[in-house]
Amino acid sequence: MSFRSDSPLVARVVASPSHEARRGVAQPDILLLHYTGMTTTQAALERLCDPAARVSSHYLVFEDGRILQLVPESERAFHAGESSWEGTRDINSRSIGIEIGNPGHDEGCPEFPNAQIEAVIALSRDILSRWPITPFRVLAHSDVAPARKRDPGERFPWARLAAAGVGLWVEPEPVVSGVALRPGDRGEKVADLQRALADYGYGVAPSGLYDAATEEVVTAFQRHFRPTRVDGIADISTAATLKKLFARRAAGA
Q: Is 5 exposed, middle or buried (0-12, 13-18, 19+ CB in 10 A)?
């Protein structure tokens, strides 16, 4: 089955069989960015179109900037997996997914080429022009699935995207020495941190115990918003950067 591309930026439609109707939502309100995490982008394309794999995304962006569309934006693609954001678990029904060709952490997190990032920015802006997706719902796969995923990773240029009008970004607070919350800690300060992360959208419960799930969420937050040190420890910089993001979001950025 073929279809007409939603974006004029698409070089070619390569229809994936893995999609279905969105469930319970009229239109997407999340833009979710991934890296492919495979040795080559061509291998990723083949997997995304393999009916036995049951995975797909709406778009795939090659290193040279070529954009392929695999699933119509109106349809539910299979890219997020087990995930959550702001209490919603069916992220596939709420999102448009962009796979970005990059082998990822297993191959040392190579840089994303300039042509590829320019294409991702242009495509994202085009998608945002059609759908009611706010800047703070332009997310990483690791944001919605912190226990399972690391993509698109700490080397992804989120600041560059935000400067072009894609996503929410604040300058991270510098890493300094001082009191930090870390795995194994307990108490109200841990619960306050968990509540703040949950209020931003992350799937963490305010238990008051800095458990493995909390560490995973803090790590995901750092990958996206404080990438200079990704260690799962809620230091002064991490907490201050989260506070700045709340202020920017409240200001309607």
A: middle
Please, what are the averages of pLDDT over each run of 10 residues along the chain (253 residues)? 93 97 93 97 98 97 98 98 96 98 95 98 98 97 98 98 98 94 97 98 97 98 98 98 96 76
- From residue 85, alpha-carbon distances to 108, 134, 169, 203, 227 in Å are 28, 14, 18, 6, 20
- CB atoms closer than 10 angstroms to residue 142: 27
Contact yes or no for 138/212 (Cβ under 8 A) = no
173 in catalytic set: no
Of the candidates 73, 99, 154, 215, the residue annotated as catalytic is: 99
> What CATH number does the domain located at 188-250 have?
1.10.101.10
**What single letter denotes the amino acid at residue 192?**
D
CATH for 12-163, among 3.40.80.10, 3.40.1010.20, 3.40.50.12370, 3.40.50.970? Answer: 3.40.80.10
